[in-house]
Prior knowledge:
By secondary structure, this protein is of the alpha+beta class. It has two domains: 3-106 and 208-227, Beta Polymerase, domain 2 (2-Layer Sandwich), CATH 3.30.460; 110-199. It is 58% helix and 10% strand. It is built from twelve helices and five strands. It has helices at residues 3-10, 19-22, 66-74, 78-84, 94-101, 103-106, 110-133, 138-157, 168-175, 181-199, 210-225, 230-246; strands at 11-17, 32-37, 53-55, 61-65, 89-92. A five-stranded mixed sheet has the order 3-4-2-1-5. The radius of gyration is 22 Å and the shape is globular. The termini are far apart. The model is unreliable at 242-247 (pLDDT under 50).
Amino acid sequence: MQPEDLVRDHTIYACVMGSRAFGLATDTSDTDRRGVFLAPTPLFWRFEKPPTHVEGPGEERFSWELERFCELALRGNPNILECLHSPLVEHVDATGRELLSLRGAFLSRRAHDTFTRYALGQRRKLDADVRTTGAPRWKHAMHLLRLLMSARDLLRTGELRLDVGDQREPLLAVKRGEVPWAQVEAWMVRLADETEQALHRTPLPPEPDHARVADFLYRVRRASACPPDTHHEVVQRVVRAGRVGQG
Length: 247
């Protein structure tokens, strides 16, 4: 089975991410698609294991195998958590719906560390751009501000929401380079301080619900390895129908 076949035939959840999910899309925005596929359990019985992720088919598409996706979500990976909360769902099956029902199980105070580390990495890149060219990449500055807002609000409310709402126009002004860098820096510092303050009063638990996620993954893997016995199901339906008729 080719990697793209896994995505094409075994995707359990697919969504749109990026600017379109954040409420920041313009006429020139790309459509970034993300997904989760469930590799059939028998593929893991070979020396060569299924891939943990697949790029494609098509441009702007990236998918994770379910186990890898859950591992990253439990660690509080910002990209993965945001993928789980996209408002733009393109495909979801029964397993995907159960995955979405677990969104709260992945959320914890770990998000503070992971979001903050990611934000610091992006900030260093922006500072390097300013030193090298005299200006940051404004689109990246916009998305860093959005990420900081998302982290702050997650810690404040315990819920992860992607759409920026009434902050759309101020953020797009940053993307267009209409806001002085010093003002953008001050905005970033303020958001970072607010995020730190929110951590002390957050309703999020200290750790994610690892056991609940592990149970989900185990059941899904087992179901894939041992599909229902169709003949047995038919017999059981006949038996039940006979009991109903006798009643």
